[in-house]
Amino acid sequence: MILSSNLGYPRIGINRDLKFALEKYWKNGISLDELQQTADRIKTANWIVQKDMGLDFVPSNDFSFYDQVLDTTFMLGAIPERFKQEKDLEGLDLYFAMARGWHNDQGKTIPAMEMTKWFNTNYHYLVPEINANTKFKLNPAKPIDSYKLAQTLNLNTRPVIIGPVTFLLLSKSEDPSFNPLNKLDEVMDLYANLFKRLREMEVKWIQLDEPFLSMDLDGLGEDAYQQLFNRFNSHHGRPKVMLTTYFGDLFANRDLIAASPFEGLHLDMTNCSQPERVLASVQEGQMVSLGLIDGRNVWKNDLTKTLNTIKEIYERFHFENIVVSPSCSMLHVPQDLRMEKNLPGEVYLWLAFARQKLEELSELKKAGNRNFTPTSFFQNNQGDVQSRREIAKIEALQITAAHKAVSTKRQSSFAQRKASQQAVLYLPVLPTTTIGSFPQTSEVRKLRSQLQKNAISYEQYKGELEREIEKTIHFQEKIGLDILVHGEFERNDMVQYFAEKMDGFVFTDNGWVQSFGSRCVRPPIIYGVVSRPEAMTVRWATFAQSLTDKPVKGMLTGPVTILQWSFVRDDQPRSETCRQIAFAIRAEVQDLEAAGIKVIQIDEPALREGLPLQKKDWPAYLDWAVECFQISSSGVKDETQIHTHMCYAEFNDIIEAIARMDADVISIEASRSKMELLQAFQKFNYPNEIGPGVYDIHSPNIPDVAEIHDLIHNALEVIPAEQLWINPDCGLKTRQWAEVEPALKNMLAAVKQARKELAG
Ligand SMILES: Nc1nc2c(c(=O)[nH]1)N[C@@H](CNc1ccc(C(=O)N[C@@H](CCC(=O)N[C@@H](CCC(=O)N[C@@H](CCC(=O)O)C(=O)O)C(=O)O)C(=O)O)cc1)CN2
Ligand code: MET
Ligand SMILES: [Zn+2]
């Protein structure tokens, strides 16, 4: 039999209902009840769609108010100590405090948990904090309540649970010598209890997410999985378990997986180099789930080809059942293509969002159970897939001349450039700057939405934004920043803005994908050859520069980040698409320089997240990623100072590649980890300049002078003063002016103090 399953559905609501409800709740605009009702409506709507598509396994517990890893932390009762001290914080408010930080009117603050990237996606999770003294306590309400809610729709769902090994491997300890895996036994006791509770409710299957099985594992990791398998060896007292892996290739861990006692195995067929050999590790009687529909991209599946693959596997391995599935949770794709009214007709035909992917699964199942005879749905599908191929072929003929041979190196060494730049910029010790964006207020967004609806003219829009820029420039001058920015008010998003100005991209009206908490992005779709018809940022930058004698930094998004945060064509190597973007950015950098901009920042926050999941694939990626940054940044004079910016990065293992990028200044996120990650730069003797963030912009908390001053001191312990810049962690777009103004003033007060101390 061919069955079908889903691993997780977008949970933000068809019109981003959850986002709006959350943000209102945080502002005390709606009650907890109303928030809960919105959540239940979203869950219910999702279940109804999935039920109607005839899925055999519909997920529950895939909804989250903020993040599924935080949910797991909460379920296990692993609340960090600092949140327990505030006795009144409980329930969902405690949960949100952990996610966003907390403060009261008396000025007491509790910093949020650290946030970082979920594997190689643009989704962020909150890093569990597990220490030797962490006490666990099972709080199974969420999976249980969600299962019960689905039952009211006559649906017996498959709860999604992050597995214990993955949970601990995602965790961090404040004591670097303590490995959270030491808590595995204790945590597995709670899981055993949870499984028992679910079994008592007659839950048949659970989906146990263990994506680390498709990553590189060291001895400890392998050992942990062995322990997991031993512990749950018997199927008594628990539901059946679909051991679920995704994002990476299972090949390296195939022997480990062959020892799994679980009743099912899900593998990501879109990341599987040798499916036959991996499938050979599936045991007699195990239910195999094939992740054939790409849960990370938006292209229509080639159903004819996929049906053939299923047939071959079925005949070759004699599996009793095969479950057809998306490769991973569909959290990472937009919900419903039918909401899109403005996509070019031919491109529309090439796309499938979450709902359309369910339809593909349903058709594959139908065809599979009709002795692998295609349904009528297959005909259109084949036409669409074919038309995409034809157009790509025609294009391929046109682009041979697209890449010019250029030098990817700056003209002189960093030391020489530094001298030339100082002669133009006259920077003090510990120069200060910001990362680019200032608050994207609802007024600014409203202007853009009015422009789109033709309710205001472009001239009006431009005039209003210029007023914002003036206000921002004057504010920065007044508080004494050294390198100013224009504030990025004209940008809906740092990737989408550029994509909209380049050829080769299309955009959605409603293709929202959750990035973290209530924040969403609409990743552009790269379908053709990328090029830049005209300058994209020069007018805003020169306008800002005309208002001040201080240098204004030109702000660009780098090629790797534009690639990484878009849906990318899957019919040519990513490196090729990235190179096309790099040439477009290079031209923009040169135009900015020609227009008199002396400092240019090329943001590459996604360079780290783009790293392949398995180390063997790193060197090849880093080679082309660094080369693309160099293509973008090397076409300028020595005097032009190039900055780059990265957030949420673990730099230890890529510091050599970061150095090869040869940016004059790099700013990084560092405050939540208290400058810990600067050690990588110190160890490597990183030669260029560094601005570690001294203020956590993801939290509404306002850092005080002493706190920032301490962080500057931590930084000075590892980085020489001549190399150190002072800036926030990241852009300020998600903050309000009422938060930004005092925070930046405090930052400058702390710098003033530090400069005095340095002067002795
Ligand atoms: N692509 C991307 N990935 C990223 C980041 C990033 O900046 N971009 N940063 C990190 C994650 N951080 C993020 C930080 C902020 C937001 C964010 O603020 N997103 C906004 C949407 C931004 C946007 O597209 N804005 C549009 C549309 C805004 C909108 O909702 N407009 C209203 C109307 C406006 C109104 O009346 O208020 C509508 O269309 O209904 C605009 O400004 O034009 C949100 O969720 O609210 C997202 C990610 C890592 N990954
Ligand atoms: C996610 S990195 C953001 C960089 C961008 N220049 C900003 O300030 O918003
Ligand atoms: Zn950033």
TrEMBL record:
<comment type="pathway">
    <text>Amino-acid biosynthesis; L-methionine biosynthesis via de novo pathway; L-methionine from L-homocysteine (MetE route): step 1/1.</text>
</comment>
<feature type="domain" description="Cobalamin-independent methionine synthase MetE N-terminal">
    <location>
        <begin position="4"/>
        <end position="316"/>
    </location>
</feature>
<keyword id="KW-0862">Zinc</keyword>
<feature type="binding site">
    <location>
        <position position="669"/>
    </location>
    <ligand>
        <name>Zn(2+) 1</name>
    </ligand>
</feature>
<comment type="function">
    <text>Catalyzes the transfer of a methyl group from 5-methyltetrahydrofolate to homocysteine resulting in methionine formation.</text>
</comment>
<comment type="similarity">
    <text>Belongs to the vitamin-B12 independent methionine synthase family.</text>
</comment>
<feature type="active site" description="Proton donor">
    <location>
        <position position="698"/>
    </location>
</feature>
<feature type="binding site">
    <location>
        <position position="645"/>
    </location>
    <ligand>
        <name>Zn(2+)</name>
    </ligand>
</feature>
<feature type="binding site">
    <location>
        <begin position="519"/>
        <end position="520"/>
    </location>
    <ligand>
        <name>5-methyltetrahydropteroyltri-L-glutamate</name>
    </ligand>
</feature>
<dbReference type="GO" id="GO:0003871">
    <property type="term" value="F:5-methyltetrahydropteroyltriglutamate-homocysteine S-methyltransferase activity"/>
</dbReference>
<keyword id="KW-0479">Metal-binding</keyword>
<feature type="binding site">
    <location>
        <position position="669"/>
    </location>
    <ligand>
        <name>Zn(2+)</name>
    </ligand>
</feature>
<feature type="binding site">
    <location>
        <position position="19"/>
    </location>
    <ligand>
        <name>5-methyltetrahydropteroyltri-L-glutamate</name>
    </ligand>
</feature>
<feature type="binding site">
    <location>
        <position position="647"/>
    </location>
    <ligand>
        <name>Zn(2+) 1</name>
    </ligand>
</feature>
<feature type="binding site">
    <location>
        <position position="609"/>
    </location>
    <ligand>
        <name>5-methyltetrahydropteroyltri-L-glutamate</name>
    </ligand>
</feature>
<dbReference type="GO" id="GO:0032259">
    <property type="term" value="P:methylation"/>
</dbReference>
<feature type="binding site">
    <location>
        <position position="488"/>
    </location>
    <ligand>
        <name>L-methionine</name>
    </ligand>
</feature>
<feature type="binding site">
    <location>
        <position position="603"/>
    </location>
    <ligand>
        <name>L-homocysteine</name>
    </ligand>
</feature>
<feature type="binding site">
    <location>
        <position position="647"/>
    </location>
    <ligand>
        <name>Zn(2+)</name>
    </ligand>
</feature>
<dbReference type="InterPro" id="IPR038071">
    <property type="entry name" value="UROD/MetE-like_sf"/>
</dbReference>
<feature type="binding site">
    <location>
        <position position="122"/>
    </location>
    <ligand>
        <name>5-methyltetrahydropteroyltri-L-glutamate</name>
    </ligand>
</feature>
<keyword id="KW-0489">Methyltransferase</keyword>
<feature type="domain" description="Cobalamin-independent methionine synthase MetE C-terminal/archaeal">
    <location>
        <begin position="430"/>
        <end position="752"/>
    </location>
</feature>
<feature type="binding site">
    <location>
        <position position="730"/>
    </location>
    <ligand>
        <name>Zn(2+) 1</name>
    </ligand>
</feature>
<dbReference type="InterPro" id="IPR013215">
    <property type="entry name" value="Cbl-indep_Met_Synth_N"/>
</dbReference>
<feature type="binding site">
    <location>
        <position position="645"/>
    </location>
    <ligand>
        <name>Zn(2+) 1</name>
    </ligand>
</feature>
<feature type="binding site">
    <location>
        <begin position="435"/>
        <end position="437"/>
    </location>
    <ligand>
        <name>L-homocysteine</name>
    </ligand>
</feature>
<keyword id="KW-0808">Transferase</keyword>
<dbReference type="GO" id="GO:0008270">
    <property type="term" value="F:zinc ion binding"/>
</dbReference>
<feature type="binding site">
    <location>
        <begin position="435"/>
        <end position="437"/>
    </location>
    <ligand>
        <name>L-methionine</name>
    </ligand>
</feature>
<protein>
    <recommendedName>
        <fullName>5-methyltetrahydropteroyltriglutamate--homocysteine methyltransferase</fullName>
        <ecNumber>2.1.1.14</ecNumber>
    </recommendedName>
</protein>
<dbReference type="Pfam" id="PF01717">
    <property type="entry name" value="Meth_synt_2"/>
</dbReference>
<dbReference type="InterPro" id="IPR006276">
    <property type="entry name" value="Cobalamin-indep_Met_synthase"/>
</dbReference>
<dbReference type="GO" id="GO:0009086">
    <property type="term" value="P:methionine biosynthetic process"/>
</dbReference>
<feature type="binding site">
    <location>
        <position position="730"/>
    </location>
    <ligand>
        <name>Zn(2+)</name>
    </ligand>
</feature>
<dbReference type="InterPro" id="IPR002629">
    <property type="entry name" value="Met_Synth_C/arc"/>
</dbReference>
<keyword id="KW-0486">Methionine biosynthesis</keyword>
<feature type="binding site">
    <location>
        <position position="488"/>
    </location>
    <ligand>
        <name>L-homocysteine</name>
    </ligand>
</feature>
<feature type="binding site">
    <location>
        <position position="565"/>
    </location>
    <ligand>
        <name>5-methyltetrahydropteroyltri-L-glutamate</name>
    </ligand>
</feature>
<keyword id="KW-0677">Repeat</keyword>
<feature type="binding site">
    <location>
        <position position="603"/>
    </location>
    <ligand>
        <name>L-methionine</name>
    </ligand>
</feature>
<keyword id="KW-0028">Amino-acid biosynthesis</keyword>
